[in-house]
């Protein structure tokens, strides 16, 4: 019986999708299925890679016309059989014990709705990916959970899946907020379980400031009841951030003054040296 469904949406991912599938197949949990959703890829390398994956029986490949990331993830989950869902982008990777450790948490704690862990970057930049500790106040201000976190299929069904109106990013943030709206708790595993491929052309890094505002506003508007219920935590976090900003502005201002005074001293010394016979 399938326990975990790893869903990998793919659009012109080239050979990288094979690396994602390989990491999914390496999971130590015995009841894992892997599904790849080809979201209308046209690249020949991608199409050949998907044919190989399918022919080798490595994963089930589902094909559809290009509809975007949210629709591709939803399609994969609809076609899956697992009670727990672990989305994985076609250019990222997971460590072998991720599914098993996340399942242990969800099986033993009914109140938990999202499980993720520490992460690292590879590719254009490498090293640990710093993720602040989870708190509701922080989460309402910015996304703290990457897209490859495990959640319950039942919760996905309850909240209506990924919102297809999130066309420019933050679709995972919107889903996490909706699951938190069910009064679910979040657990972060204290070990690296996820590898994020850092590229210069990722969806978020290439998104304009205006698009970021639009996407955040959509997530906020569609989860307004969650913000209302946790208004105190949200306000406390915003005030703490404002105070921290004022603190650093003060320190920066003193540094600027010191640099300015140092420049004046240097100019004075130069004048005196120039006046020497």
Automatic annotation (TrEMBL):
Domain Glycosyltransferase 2-like span(s) in chain numbering: 5-142
Coiled-coil annotated spans: none
GO biological process: single-species biofilm formation
GO molecular function: transferase activity
Database matches in InterPro entries: Glyco_trans_2-like, Glycosyltransf_2, Nucleotide-diphossugar_trans
Lineage: superkingdom: Bacteria
Protein name: Glycosyltransferase family 2 protein
Natural source organism: Nocardioides zhouii
């Amino acid at each position: 019986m399938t326990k975990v469904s790893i869903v990998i949406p793919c659009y012109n991912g080239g050979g990288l999708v094979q690396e994602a599938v390989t990491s999914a197949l390496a999971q130590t949990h015995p009841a894992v299925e892997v599904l790849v959703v080809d979201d209308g890829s046209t690249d020949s390398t991608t199409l050949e890679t998907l044919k190989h994956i399918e022919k080798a029986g490595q994963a089930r490949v589902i094909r559809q016309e290009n509809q975007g990331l949210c629709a591709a993830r939803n399609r994969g989950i609809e076609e899956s059989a697992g009670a727990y869902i672990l989305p994985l982008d076609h250019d990222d990777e997971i460590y072998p014990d991720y599914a098993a450790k996340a399942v242990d948490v969800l099986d033993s704690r009914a109140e938990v709705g999202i499980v993720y862990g520490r992460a690292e970057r590879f590719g254009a930049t490498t090293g640990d990916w710093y993720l602040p500790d989870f708190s509701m106040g922080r989460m309402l201000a910015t996304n703290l959970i990457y897209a490859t976190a495990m959640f319950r299929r039942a919760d996905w069904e309850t909240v209506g899946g990924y919102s297809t109106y999130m066309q420019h990013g933050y679709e995972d943030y919107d889903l996490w907020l909706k699951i938190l709206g069910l009064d679910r708790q979040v657990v972060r595993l204290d070990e690296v379980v996820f590898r994020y491929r850092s590229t210069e052309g990722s969806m978020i890094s290439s998104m304009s400031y205006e698009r970021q505002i639009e996407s955040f506003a959509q997530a906020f508007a569609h989860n307004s009841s969650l913000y209302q219920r946790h208004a105190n935590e949200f306000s406390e976090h915003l005030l703490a951030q404002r105070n921290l900003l004022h603190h650093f502005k003060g320190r920066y201002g003193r540094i600027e003054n010191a640099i300015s005074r140092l420049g004046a001293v240097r100019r004075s010394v130069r004048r005196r040296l120039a006046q020497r016979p």
